[in-house]
Amino acid sequence: MRLRYKRIFLGLLALVLLLLALIVGALMYVTTTTGGLQQLVSVSQRWLPGELQIKSIEGTLHDSLTLQGVSFRNDEGLDISLQRLQLVWEPMALFDGTLHLRTLVLEHPVIILPPAEEQPVPTAPLFPLSLPDVSLPIQIKIDDLQLDQLAFQQLLANPAPAPVSEPEAQPVPVLIEYLVLQAHTEQQTLILDQLEVVAPQGQVKLSGSLLPSEQYPFKLSTEWQVIVPDAPALNGQGTLVGNIAALEITQQLSGFVDMGVSASMALIADTLKLNKLQVTQPSKKSEILLSGKVSGLQTTPLVALDGQWENLGYPLEGDAVYRSEQGNIKLTGSLDDYQLVLNSAIDGADIPVGQWTLNGGGNRSGFTAFELTGRTLEGALEAKGKVTWLPELSWQVALTGQKINPGSEWTDWPAKLDFQLRSSGLLSAQKPLQVQADLVSLSGTLRSEPVKGEASVALNGTELDIRQITLDVASAQLQASGRVGQKMDLDWALNAPTLEKLLPNALGSLTGKGTLRGPQDKLHLVARLQGQGLKFDANQIDDLDADLDIDLSGQQNSRWVLQANNLNLAEQRWKKLTLDGQGTPLQHQTALTLEQGPANLKLSLQGRWEASQWRGSLTRADLQNEMLGSWQLAQPVAIQGSSALASVKDFCWQRQPSGTGELCVDGGWSVAKGSQAELKIRQLALSLLEPFMPAGTQLDGQLLGQASFVQQPGKRPVFSATTRLVKSQVRLESEDLNIIGGDIQFNVSGRQEQIKANLQLPLLQPVGLLHADVLIDDAYQQGILKGDTRLDLSELKFISLFSPQLQAITGKLESALTLTGSIEKPMVRGSLQLVGASAELPALGVKLDVIELEIHDQPGSDNLLLSGALHSGKGALQLSGLLDPLNYSGTLNIAGERFQVMATDEISAWISPALDISVTPELIRLRGEIKIPEAKITPPKIAASATPLSSDVVILDPEGGGSDALLAPQQAMDASLRLTLGDKVEVDALGFKGRLQGSILIEDDGLRATRATGNMDVVAGEYRLYGQDLNIERGSLVFTGGPVDNPGLDLRVSRIVDDVTAGAKVSGTLNEPRLDLFSDPAMPESSLLSYLLFGRAPGAANTSTSEQELLFKAASALTMKGGNVIAEKLTDIFDVNELGLEGDSLNDTSFYIGKYLSPKLYVKYGVGLLEPTSTFLMRYRLSKRWSVESQTGTDSSGGDLIYTLEH
Which residue ranges does the record assign to the Translocation and assembly module TamB C-terminal domain (predicted)? Predict the structure, then answer.
């Protein structure tokens, strides 16, 4: 028995071992061989809830596996396909309790889900929110998981029937373009080493940790990007920290907008509490703060939010169009019953500053009631009503304005307006837009002129019913009524007798009335317009008369006449303009005439309008101009045009007399063929340019040329142009200048992506050549440049044509340059040299000798190096610098010693400069010093018999400052220049003879007046006054950083006669000098002046009557010019404009007081001091140029009519 059991046991053991061997063998067969895996897939089909297909299998489950063409479909509509799956893992790691995936690649997965089933309403409460605890039985480690081009789609439950001709099925949209995952677990915590997802809408990168149990705490670092259409992408990075009950968000945004976002929120039962949401934009000091809660998430959500902001603007970057300095908002209630309160200060580029308040309540369909109030434009606006947007948009609003002043924002429109406006409307998918608007009342003032009006209009789709428009503004009346739409029936009338009261920058009167009737394709317009003294900005018309009677139906003859007299348009003046036309659409003609202006022009057109196309001809185009001569058409020009094509054929303009020039153009455009044009120039005389050349210049020769242009729709243009100058010659007899050119040619052509240009400019006298070839490849994209130029001129006398101040120019100019780079960034290589040159400047009396100049490229740089020298007198200047012609900038250094800058009979001067100049498109910067080691200034003596201007002559704007604006530099100036006088600067002028020294620093920043610091001193000198030599003891112009044209004065002159010293001290500033006389011993001013001017005591035997008169005038002058301070103070005390002494001699001296009683009326009363006389003068200004003056006195009376001429 025991042996039997033993045999049974051994049999069972052998059977178990055999079964284990079979199982292990099967597993080994399946996992370690490709064939076994294929059989496993084949056998598993019977247990799968669908159809699984795999096109090919490579590898095994033991280490690496690759599946191609994987798909799975079931009867419910689920369809999953995968182009390739690759798996590399460590199966032995399972023995250590770890699932280790080295590589898992899923290529082009496509998931199509069946229609979603309607989910039953959950009976269990959603809140408080809880998630299941996940306990991982093993550890997980994923080294590299990649997913490429994931496409996803869910089918519709009830798709619409397909059309008969159904197009090809569209590809399933791509949801994720690329996904990479690297992760592992540590105990029960999931560690995201890297998760990167790239989608069409943007991309996101995550890293951090998550514990999938209890409150699911997590901590994530984020980096993401969102693609914004037609704008830079929006980038963000930050952190997410929290759990299912609380969340902290911190993000920094950049790209589309730069701002910071932080938020703190918590979920308590079914209430989401927003502790704080803060958005900041440091660049604009903007901030948004929001807090509140949403309760009742399980049942009916109720919102209670509060927010405030500062310095908001839109757009978020750049200059804001809309701005809100501060504001707050409060939102409470549910979607079916909410209340909104908003307060905000709003302004913008075209929005006036205002404080606005919105109170409203509503539901899902819209605002059931709202009230919007605003304090703006120095007044108040209030809007009340309701607005709905579901199921259709409709509104009923009443708008009221009180004391609105547009002039507070737009200064040309000062007003104070009150108005009431009512509006209602409806817009839906089934009905056209319907609007009813009634201006119940309008009243107030505009520019202190009364305003009133009322209007009522209704819009139904495209049909506008103008029931009434009546406006009376600043004496102008506008009335309109009727219908505007498919069928017109409109009447209007305008009467504006004083446009200056209505419009800024306008003058004159304008009246008109008219009607517009009929369907749009057969309109009949009748209008009459008249104007007198019209002026709009710089444009002016003295008289305007227009009559229009146009019947587009063609049932009756149309007529249009416009006549304007004394026109000033864009600073061009014409005596008369006439436009006259008549006819029907099938046959009409019109003529335009401009007379007695910069050019006289006469145009005549005739044609017909038929089948939406105009065909006709230009029968006359006469142009006559003093400089360009007379031009006429060679023959009528055929013209046609429509919305699909236009053409001009055989337009030839001939200069009269014939044979002196002709311009011909043919051209056309059509939607189908694009554009084409041809231009021909024949025998165009160069003498046409003589009016634009220096006086006395004679031009001979002719210009010939032709050009063509073709551009088909959607293609690059093809063009070519060739011009020739034949028998060209330039003569300027006054300068002994004669330039004879050879056959000068210029060619340019463009085809596909390439443009070529060539210039050949040979000179026969002087002998020379300018040759240039330029090629542009990829012209419309990169614009790659290739080219070279060569210049060789043996004579430079022609420069006098363009710089008349330079004469007798000699020298030779040579250049060889190559052009590379691109159009946006061209590069110049080569050199330009001026050698053996000289020139004269007759106005300065100097000759520039040995002028040398060289400009050449700098290897490895886009800049050009400049060097040169020029001599004058026995001195020279050295030039060096750097040029950047592409950016219009450069630097220049000028240094020299004793360079003679003037050598005339009046002035001889030498300079020794050391200057650094830099130039950019925005700024000219000057630094350095100019030393004047030697100068002699001796202007010609002024003849004593020269006749002075009458005292009646008043000169206004003596320097013609009006023209300075035309010469104003476009670049700002930043200058700091020191001017130093040497010890040989001598002046003998205007009675002064002596030597000057000193140094001043001149500064100019372009923002303030030019300033100076330093002294200019008289080292030794004398001043001759009335034949007497006065010794200059001390003389200085003191610059203390103020304006350079108003230095301080510190002068002391004196003379010694016997034992008497008499002199004068001058202080103050150049604009407000102060003269004080002194003597030793002290004496009256009359005695002091006698010693100072004549060298003897007053009353001496040899003192003449003329000298006594001179003394009297000198003493009076001292009083009038500030020597008598008491008189100056009295004018302020008694509020008078003038107070003082006047008279030609001692006996007729009088004391006078003058005052302006009004800006136009001036009176003056005088009384004799030594003689019993009195005078009364009255002057009244009639206009800008005319004034009348009357004077009544003891001895005589009279009057004058005074004319003031400005120049």
Answer: 872-1206
Report the C-alpha gap between 690 and 150 in whole angstroms. 76
Cβ atoms of 837 and 811 closer than 8 Å:
yes
943-950: Cβ within 8 A, 24+ apart: none
Q: How many CB atoms sit inside 10 A of residue 974's CB?
A: 16
State the Cα–Cα distance between residues 257 and 1175, nearest whole angstrom. 80
d(CA 1149, CA 960): 38
CB 300 within 8 A of CB 329: no
- What is the C-alpha separation between 737 and 729, in angstroms, rounded? 10
Q: 640 - beta bridge partners?
A: 615, 647
Taking a C-beta distance cutoff of 8 angstroms, is the pair 302, 334 a contact? yes
DSSP H or E run through 35: helix 34-44
Task: Return the structure tokens found at 991.
Answer: 């009675």
pLDDT category of residue 214 using cuts at 50, 70 and 90 = confident
Cβ neighbours of 1129 (radius 10 Å)? 11
- State yes or no: pLDDT of 917 exceeds 80: yes
53, pLDDT greater than 50: yes
Q: Which residues of 101-139 are buried (b: 16+ CB within 10 A; e: fewer)?
A: beebebeebbbbeeeeeeeeeeeeeeeeeeeeeeeeeeb
- CA–CA separation, 380 vs 392, rounded Å? 31
Which pLDDT band holds residue 1147 (cuts at 50, 70, 90)?
A: low
State the amino acid at position 68 in one-letter form: Q
Q: Is 569 left (phi over 0), alpha (psi -120 to 50) or beta?
A: beta
Q: Please determine, for residue 1107, whether its predicted confidence score (pLDDT) is greater than 60.
A: no
Instruction: Report the SS3 class of residue 362.
Output: strand
CA-nearest of 685, 677, 673, 670 to 721 is: 677
Task: Name which residue leads in pLDDT, 570 or 293.
Answer: 293
Question: If DSSP codes are grouped into helix, strand and coil, which group holds residue 669?
Answer: strand
3-state secondary structure of 1175: strand
DSSP calls for 692-730:
GSPTTEEEEEEEEEEEEEEE-TTS--EEEEEEEEEEEEE
C-alpha separations of 946 from 906, 942, 943 in Å: 20, 8, 6
pLDDT above 70: residue 778 = yes
C-alpha dihedral, 961 to 965 to 966 to 972, nearest 10°: 130
pLDDT band at residue 1093 under the 50/70/90 scheme = low
How many whole angstroms separate alpha carbon 837 and alpha carbon 849?
7
Percent of the chain having pLDDT more than 90?
27
| Closest of 753, 627, 746 to residue 685, by C-alpha | 627
Contact 802, 796 (CB under 8 A): no
Contact 140, 130 (CB under 8 A): no
3-class state of residue 598 by DSSP: coil
Q: 631 or 691, which is more confident? A: 631
The answer to whether the CB of 424 falls within 8 A of the CB of 396 is yes
Cβ 243 vs Cβ 266: under 8 Å: no
* Cβ contacts of 542 within 8 Å, gap of 6 or more: 532, 533, 534, 565, 566, 567
Structure tokens at 677: 């044009």
Q: What secondary structure, in 3-state letters, does 945-1011 show?
A: CCCCCCCCCCCCCCCCHHHHHHHCCCCEEEEEEEEEEEEEEEEEECCEEEEEEEEEEEEECCCCCCE
**What's the mean pLDDT when you consider all of the chain?**
81
pLDDT of 543 reads 93
Asked whether the CA dihedral 926, 932, 935, 941 is positive or negative, the reply is: positive
Q: What is the mean pLDDT of residues 863-880?
A: 89
pLDDT (tens digit per residue) in 295-347:
988 888 999 999 999 988 887 777 788 888 899 999 999 989 999 999 999 88
According to DSSP, the β-strands at 923-937 and 972-989 are parallel
